[in-house]
Specification:
alpha+beta, Butyryl-Coa Dehydrogenase, subunit A, domain 1, Butyryl-CoA Dehydrogenase, subunit A, domain 2, Butyryl-CoA Dehydrogenase, subunit A, domain 3, 4-stranded mixed sheet, 4-stranded antiparallel sheet, binds flavin-adenine dinucleotide
């Protein structure tokens, strides 16, 4: 089925194309074709070109640095950037723009919007996510990082873990317990904490892939101004859930475009390797194509909702399960297409993540191997597949809720 866009969206496409054409080096073959430092530098410069042209957060209001456009233009932008193999932002923008930026936009005070949003887009502030703790992952309500007011500041003590790109950030958004005697989901406050201070220590964790993209973050009498909270004191749970909606669902309409391009590269790879003649490989490629097409239409459904003004809600969980499980399947297939070559150690490229958005050539075994490894974590971060199924069961299908055993004061029911 061919879906057409309105005239304004096509005009925007022409505008984006001309910006890409006039800024992309003639010999550009994708970030995947560069070494890590060149790749990092390219992404940094490219992000700044997008920013100068109002293309980093196109649907944000102009007064905060956006372009006052709609999620449809965001889709068009993604289509064009994917076609040219260029990123739509930097490695922390998923936290800075997609998560905290959008949350500030819908729930922040006017003062917070005016202060934080332009700084996010200019790159002056770079954010990371401080939700998970050693005893609070799926059970996020069990957070034990504590915060209390000391004059005009919150003082925060605790430990966050799995903090992706925390080593690149200068701000962390964190959920902290401000009333231990309230039930576990009620005594939490959503805080914005500067990381450039003695009370914040970031320690890298080495991953399966050999990279150290995530970290432990230790908060020891860390301080933030008492104004730096979103929403009300002890009402941070709702804010945290709004942000998770953006984390799981905001990209519903744009991700499928990247996945389709990744699949196109995989088909190219199968041809190069000669495995496109193998009936089993052909069958699996065809299945991936059907799944990617279904994802694209799920994306259009979300886009229709966003254009009507709704925010991502529990239905984001459907998308979260769908893409993360699809991605494990498609990268398993990539390994089978490459066979022993998949184990070829390659140079580590720039921050290639899921999908192979920035990889230069279809036959780079090290790129596919990297993406294969990273895809393992897709069914864990942003909430595991099991937890998404609980959300779908309880909040969408209206099935009976899991029995709750810890409804009393958190201080008496805490799990440690
Ligand atoms: C690559 C990566 C990046 C991450 N980045 C960040 C980040 O930047 N910031 C951040 O705050 N966190 C981050 N995380 C952490 C992530 O959000 C948690 O790992 C995730 O929420 C799961 O929590 P957990 O690891 O504590 O597992 P647990 O909650 O201990 O779960 C263990 C297992 O039990 C299952 N389980 C738990 N509860 C239930 C239930 N009620 N019903 C059914 N099954 C259940 C889970 O599905 C899982 O299989 C990241 C994780 C990864 C892998």
């Amino acid at each position: 089925m061919k879906i057409g866009y309105p005239q304004e969206a096509e005009e925007f496409r022409t505008h984006v194309r001309s910006i890409i054409a006039s800024n992309l080096p003639k010999d550009f073959r994708g970030v995947g074709a560069m070494d890590k430092s060149q790749g990092d530098q390219f992404i940094k410069n490219w992000r700044s070109i997008l920013h100068q042209n109002g293309l980093l957060a196109v649907s944000w209001p102009k007064k905060y640095g956006g372009s006052d456009l709609t999620p449809l233009e965001q889709v068009v932008l993604m289509e064009e950037c994917t076609k040219f193999g260029v990123p739509t932002g930097g490695p922390n923008d998923v936290f800075s723009i997609q998560m905290i930026g959008n949350t500030i936009l819908v729930l922040g005070s006017e003062q917070q919007k005016e202060y934080f949003l332009p700084r996010i887009l200019s790159g002056e502030d770079v954010w990371c996510q401080g939700y998970s703790e050693p005893n609070a992952g799926s059970d996020l309500g069990n957070i034990s990082t504590r915060a209390f007011l000391d004059g005009d500041d919150w003082v925060i003590d605790g430990q966050k873990v799995w903090t992706s790109y925390g080593h690149l950030a200068n701000w962390i958004f964190a959920v902290a317990r401000t009333d231990p005697d309230a039930p576990k989901h009620r005594g939490l406050t959503f805080m914005l904490v500067p990381m450039d201070q003695d009370g914040v220590e970031v320690r890298p964790i080495r991953m399966l892939s050999g990279d150290s993209e995530f970290n432990e973050v230790f908060l020891t009498h860390a301080r933030t101004s008492k104004e730096n909270i979103i929403g009300q004191v002890n009402e941070g749970w709702g804010v945290a859930m709004t942000l998770l909606g953006f984390e799981r669902g905001e990209a519903a309409a744009t991700f499928p475009i990247r996945f389709m391009e990744e699949l196109r590269k995989l088909i190219e790879l199968a041809k190069l390797e000669g495995t496109n003649q193998d009936p089993h490989i052909r069958q699996r490629l065809a299945k991936c194509f059907s799944l990617a097409e279904i994802m694209r239409f799920l994306g259009y459904r979300s886009l229709t909702r966003y254009l009507a003004g709704s925010q991502p809600g529990p239905e984001s969980s459907i998308f979260k399960i769908y893409w993360s499980e699809y991605h494990q399947g498609v990268t398993n297939l990539a390994m089978d297409i490459l066979g022993a070559k998949a184990m070829t150690p390659g140079h580590k490229n720039g921050p290639i993540s899921f999908p192979t958005d920035f990889s230069g050539s279809a036959n780079s075994a090290s790129n596919w191997y990297d993406v294969f490894l990273k895809a393992r974590s897709g069914t864990i971060y942003a909430g595991t597949s099991q937890v998404q199924r609980n959300i779908i069961g309880e909040q969408i299908l209206g099935l009976p809720r899991e029995p709750k055993v810890d409804t009393g004061p958190w201080s008496q029911t805490r799990r440690s």
